[in-house]
């Protein structure tokens, strides 16, 4: 083999090595660390919501890993309804539902803020004929991800035990039941029974609380943990 051929082969090998180095150092490695830093197990969140007036609201007690489409699909399969947006029309409809005992499975839920944003999605499962009592959950998409790179959604699940006046503002509102852990577990059981959960794990929540109060002044108690479920991926 001639010296020219040897030099050409050495140059080609050197260029390939440089390209591999640049790809690893400037593209693959930074992307790996970015994804690792975004994993929800490496992130800390303020695990409580707030009312628009800044009053601490319901604690964050659930989480799901999946796309928005997968969340909507999961709750539909599990028998939960997507809550309507709050408008004058839906506010009147929920009032009529409670007053006249009429069904309204898509009744809106009030706005709560997490990290300064109102909920992205809300789901509910009515109890009885009207919107007076219902299981419900709000979800916020975070910038954290699961191990598979899909987004983490953090949520607050509670049970609306009836309509009344806010203890703080006097406005008409739903009052929640105190055992929010029971609602967290009920939600995860429904999703598991629907066959759409791959796995679940626990992360720290608001912390063990025996005499908490939400934004409407309703008492609650909790072991302070949040359960995160990983949803099946849609094709």
Secondary-structure element pattern, one letter each: HEEEHEHEEEEEEHEEEE
Q: Write down how many β-strands occur, each being a DSSP E stretch of 2 or more residues.
A: 14
User: Number of folding domains?
Assistant: 2
Question: Gap between N and C termini, in Å?
Answer: 54 Å
Helices, by number, come to: 4
Low-confidence stretches: 19-36
Q: Average pLDDT, to the nearest integer?
A: 80
Q: Which shape, going by the Cα principal axes?
A: globular
Multimer state:
single chain
Structural class: alpha+beta
How does the major sheet shape up?
8 strands, mixed
- State the helicity in percent bands: 25-40%
Description:
This protein is α+β, with helices and mostly antiparallel strands. The chain has two domains: 1-38; 44-231, no CATH class. Helix content is 31%, strand content 34%. The protein contains four helices and 14 strands. Strands 3, 4, 7, 8, 9, 10, 11 and 14 form an eight-stranded mixed beta sheet that branches. A two-stranded antiparallel ribbon has the order 1-2. The longest helix is centred in the N-terminal third of the chain and has 36 residues, at 3-38. The relative contact order is 0.18. Residues 19-36 have low confidence and may be disordered.
